[in-house]
């Protein structure tokens, strides 16, 4: 299913999804699929993005980096590893402790090394772990976690790039001239939108100077973060622009003061009928 024609999500629907998510006791694909089945009217890409956001926040809120916790997890791990037919130990333990498999794996590695830099290396490349049983289990934990950890990060980065390229193609097809992030950085800009238009366009009579592509669902929390870290800077530097939340956004965001004043929100790139292009007379 494509994101074309996505409508902003009512707050009531979003709150219902969050409420059901908070009832989940384990972060696995089975729980995720149950949520998807309950909300069949929500596009899979939108539902996946919402679940990803909620998992990330839940892990930040509930997980504490502590030697005591790492030690406890390692004891549980060693106990299960005594069984020769142990199978996928980290995923089983993560489910019992109510955290994501990749995060449980990271906690185990913190018990192996107190050096956070070493833990980071092990987490990104499990072949560096001397204990081969542990290396294999950590690898399984990371690969079976599609919401947290390096494997999940690669997926999100790939999706983000895919939609940036999609937007770039649409701009080129409409002969809209632009400068991308790389070119803007070469010009000395530190914070840059994905695309700065060389000549402004009007979308439904709203002037657009830049476009930011977000391959995710926009709710109030992450939108506020983007406002503080990115969008305000773009507006101050380049004027009004457009933010595309490809997987949808909360309907309530359309009522915020900055929308239709500093920028407009869309779930896809507008068609030609709503765009007015300007030309510079030389």
Automatic annotation (TrEMBL):
UniProt subcellular location: Cytoplasm; Nucleus
One GO CC term, this protein: cytoplasm
Cytoplasm listed as a keyword: yes
Protein origin, superkingdom: Eukaryota
UniProt-listed InterPro entries: CDIN1 (IPR029404)
Keyword annotations from UniProtKB, A to Z: Cytoplasm, Nucleus
UniProt-recorded name of the protein: CDAN1-interacting nuclease 1
Source organism: Bicyclus anynana (Squinting bush brown butterfly)
């Amino acid at each position: 299913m494509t994101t074309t024609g996505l409508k902003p999500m009512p707050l009531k629907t979003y709150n219902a999804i969050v409420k059901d998510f908070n009832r989940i006791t384990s972060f696995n694909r089975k729980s995720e699929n149950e949520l998807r089945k309950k909300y069949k009217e929500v596009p899979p890409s939108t539902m996946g993005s919402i679940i990803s956001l909620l998992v990330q926040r839940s892990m930040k809120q509930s997980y504490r980096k502590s030697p005591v916790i790492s030690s406890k997890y390692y004891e549980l791990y060693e106990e299960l590893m005594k069984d020769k037919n142990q199978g996928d130990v980290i995923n089983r333990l993560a489910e019992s402790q109510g955290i994501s498999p990749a995060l449980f794996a990271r906690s185990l590695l913190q018990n192996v090394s107190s050096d956070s830099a070493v833990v980071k290396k092990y987490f990104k490349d499990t072949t560096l772990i001397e204990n081969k049983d542990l290396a294999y289990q950590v690898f399984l934990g990371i690969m079976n976690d599609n919401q947290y950890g390096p494997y999940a990060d690669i997926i999100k980065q790939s999706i983000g790039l895919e939609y940036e390229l999609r937007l770039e193609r649409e701009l080129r097809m409409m002969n809209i001239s632009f400068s991308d992030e790389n070119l803007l950085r070469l010009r000395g800009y530190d914070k840059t939108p994905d695309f700065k238009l060389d000549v402004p366009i009007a979308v439904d009579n709203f002037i657009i100077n830049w476009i930011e592509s977000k391959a995710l669902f926009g709710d109030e929390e992450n939108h506020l973060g983007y406002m503080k870290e990115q969008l305000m800077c773009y507006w101050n530097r380049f004027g009004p622009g457009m933010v595309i939340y490809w997987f949808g956004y909360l309907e309530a965001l359309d009522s915020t003061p900055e929308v239709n004043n500093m920028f407009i929100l869309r779930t896809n790139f507008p068609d030609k009928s709503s765009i007015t292009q300007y030309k510079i007379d030389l």
